[in-house]
Amino acid sequence: MQLLLLLVGCGLAFGQDVAPLPLNPDPLAEDVATCSPFMDDDFAEEVGVVEPEQNTNSRMLVSRDQTRVAILGYHNFSKTAPVSDMLMRTSDFRKQMEYIRDAGLTVISMPEFLEWRFGTRELPARCVLITLDDGWKSVYTEAYPILHEFGYPFHLFLYTQFLSGRGDSMSPEMIREMQQNGATVGSHSTSHAYPSAWKAAAAKGPEAEADMIEREIGATFPRLSGLFGSIETYCYPGGYHTPAMEERLPGYGCKAAFTVIPGKVTVSENPLQIRRYMVFGNNHSIFRRAMDFRIAQLGTVAAPGAAPGTLPSSTPPPPFPVHPGVNETVPCEFGPISIDMSRMAGVDFSTVHVAVSGFGRVPARVDRNTRSVQWTPPVRIYMPNISVHVTWKSTDGTAHKAEWSFCIDPYAAVQQ
Fold first, then answer.
1. What would the mean pLDDT of 273-287 be, rounded to a whole number?
2. Which of 20, 269, 336, 391 could tie 374 with a disulfide, CB 3.0–4.6 Å?
3. Which value, to the nearest 10 degrees, does the dihedral of the CA atoms of residues 309, 297, 265, 59 take?
C-alpha cells in the first residue's frame, strides 16, 4: 500500500514542476461507497454537535487548557474528476465548510493557534484550523473561493519544487493574493522526498542525514520567507519525521511542525509533533471524526497516565486470531488490521463493528465467506501504541467485545 505523496523527477526550485502522484486506490473504496451519506439526518446527533441555535455560547473564550483544536488537512480539489485520497469533490468541501459554520465551531488562523499554544491567547472550547498541503492550483481555483466566502482563515504548506504556476501548481502571485484574504504560509520541504530517501541518507551516517535535512527543510525557510514573509511552521511530508529533524527545526525559526496523526490538539501538544486529521475525498468518516468534540474513551479505560493507545495489562486477549498480534511491534505501514472469526460460532456479522484508537469507528470490510474482518489504515501510523476494539452480537442477541493493542516502530523497514 503506497500511502505517501510521490514525486516525479528532481527539478530545480521554482523551475520544473514536481507534482505528487495520486495515492494508490483505497482498498476500502467499496466499503466507503456504501457508507451513510455525507450529511445524513443523524450526523449531528452522531458526533455530538448541537443545533446552531443552541450554540449561542460556542464562541465564548475559555481557559487555555479547556480548548481543543481539530486541525484539518486537505490536498487537491475538483468539480468533476474522480475522487481519491488526495482529491476531494469541490461540492463536498463546501458541505464540510457549511457544517463547520452551522455547528458553531470557530475557525482559527495559524497565528492564533501559535499564540494559543505558546502564549496567553484564549480561544473557544471547540476550534478548527484548516491546512492545505503541497500547493495545488485547485486550492486557488476551487477551495479558496469557498474559504473566502465563509471568511475562514487557512494555512498553506508549500514545497518549493511545486511553485511555478505551471501545470497543476500555484504561482507565487496566486498565493500572495490569498495572503490578502486569510491565507498564511508554512514549509512542506523542498521536494516532498520519499521516506526511503530519508532512510537511505540516515544509513550513510549523521553527516549525510544532516545535509539532507538542510536541503529539504532548512533551505525552504529563507526561500519561502523571501516570497511570502516570515515562515514559522513545517509539515512533515507523509508524516515521516525523525529525532534529527526535530532537533534542527527550531534553528530554522520553526515553532511548530505537523504530522498526519489524527486527534484533537490541546495546549500541551508536542509542538514538533502536532496532530492533524487528513481529510480524504473518498472517506467522509475522517471529517466526521474530526468534528466529534465529545470526550470519550473507546473500550476499556486505561490507568491514569497510561500512554494513548494502550490497554490495562488485565485486558483479556481476543478469542480469535488477529493481525497485528497482541503486543506485537510492527512498522508504520503494516498492511490491514485483520480479525479471523472463522472458528467463532453464532456470529451475527451484520453487528460487527471495529474502532481503532486515533481513528474512532472505522469502515471495516466484513467477508462473510471467510468469516473475517479487515481494515487498512488510510495513512502510515506513527503513534507508538494502537488499540483495536471489536464489538459484535451472537445470533441470539448476546453482546460481545474484544480488545487488544500493538506497538509501532516508526524506524522499522517498510515496503515502498
1. 92
2. 336
3. 170
